[in-house]
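User:
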Amino acid sequence: MTEPSHPRESLSLRINSKIKQRYENRILEKFGTLAPYAGTELERELRVVIGDGELSKLVDTAHELARSLDENPNENKNPEPDRGGDSEVVGYRIHSEVRNALKKEAQTASDVTYASELVESVMQAYANGDQIESKVAARLDRIQNFVDSQTSDKDAVTRRTESIIEAITPSPFTLDDFNEAVDQEATGISSGKYAREEYLPRVLEEAGYTYHPNQSTLFVPIGEIDLSEQDLRDKPPVLRDDDDIREIILNDFLESAETGNQYTLAAATATLGEGVTHKTVRNTFEKIASQNEKVKYNQKEDHLYIKSKGIKSIAERSKEFDLF
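Assistant: Predicted structure:
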């Protein structure tokens, strides 16, 4: 999608006139003329919105690193623009595949209804000097500052992990117990997303604990349960890796296929639960389809389906090493 093999065409979306004027004022301030920059600059920002190109990959990486520091996820969102007043059709020229992908993104986004609303949000952010590049630069600066503060004391992670383990074992413990131990025993950090992502897996591994098959927020010594009774769908999201997500989607898809149903993006997202993006699910759909010729991914309608009835059931899969 990143290759400019598609022709440019008019954006042809109705945009709030005030937002359009502020955006164009910013373009004129930077470049001295509107053409072609009003279109090319907007297209660059929109490619990040639709998840296309190297800049989009950089943005995703910076966001993931920032989230590991427990930063506010709302910072990644552009403020809701004021859409009061007149509107007019904007004819900036962008590549056709970007325009088409933008419309598809608007259909699946939770906070907008129309593609024009996505464009208005991006144009307003740009007009306010909040371009993607400046956001990434500021976020990377904070990440670097955090790294610098941690490297001065390389044993801090080990000491915190040991302190948490001492506080909550050898008895079974819950996420609330873990959070309390972090706040009371782990000097320099507090309970939250960062602590769960950075320290909970360490604590479980070093203490020899795992999640309970019937109570996903309860953690017990591995020797006290039958691991075969664990269902990955009950595994706490903070402990899942890409292989777990793939296996959850695959099992859910095969169960759906056995009943003759299509397995949709919405179904997969609901199964995985809060915090999983449509982009992650789509990437997993693509990976599953690419690894077996009997499974196909309908990108237009966002669902997996079985091309051949020769695919093995879940029961058959469990008897063999081959996933299919």
